[in-house]
């Protein structure tokens, strides 16, 4: 089935989104929250001898936090357990893809990540005395963003 891609006009923002995640083309499904998507420039300070009025701030490298995706437990959870099962026999660094989409399927933004490693899956706390939505969380590490696609 051909993939239809809808893109929002540049001036439109996302109000209600979900995040579709794939690792090397293998879908992990849609998630309702995404935390940690970002980058930080690590700064190093240097004091210059004889110049007491200035401390140099020098950029050294980029640091990427782990990204956590959460969602209610459902049929798509099997895709995550299959991924971690395959990792038991070894894992090679992969490319990850995140698409932020509206409920109607329009893509708001997308990111491609290099050298992705799934590092943690946290399942729901099961307690029959406290009925609530069962959620799961998947955490991935990565080594940066790949340049955007030019169309």
UniProtKB/TrEMBL annotation:
<protein>
    <submittedName>
        <fullName>Phage tail protein</fullName>
    </submittedName>
</protein>
<dbReference type="Pfam" id="PF06841">
    <property type="entry name" value="Phage_T4_gp19"/>
</dbReference>
<dbReference type="GO" id="GO:0005198">
    <property type="term" value="F:structural molecule activity"/>
</dbReference>
<dbReference type="InterPro" id="IPR011747">
    <property type="entry name" value="CHP02241"/>
</dbReference>
<dbReference type="InterPro" id="IPR010667">
    <property type="entry name" value="Phage_T4_Gp19"/>
</dbReference>
């Amino acid at each position: 089935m051909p993939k239809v891609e809808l893109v929002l006009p540049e001036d439109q923002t996302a109000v209600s989104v979900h995040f579709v995640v794939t690792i090397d083309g293998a879908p992990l499904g849609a998630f309702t929250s995404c935390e940690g998507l970002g980058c930080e420039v690590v700064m190093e300070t240097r004091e210059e001898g004889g110049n007491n009025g200035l401390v140099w701030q020098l950029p050294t490298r980029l640091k990427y936090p782990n990204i956590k995706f959460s969602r209610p437990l459902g049929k798509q959870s099997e895709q995550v357990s299959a991924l971690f099962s395959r990792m038991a026999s070894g894992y090679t660094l992969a490319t990850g893809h995140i698409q932020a989409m509206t409920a109607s399927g329009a893509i708001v933004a997308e990111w491609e990540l290099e050298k992705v490693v799934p590092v943690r899956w946290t399942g729901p706390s099961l307690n029959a005395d406290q009925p609530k939505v069962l959620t799961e969380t998947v955490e991935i590490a990565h080594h940066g963003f790949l340049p955007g696609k030019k169309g």
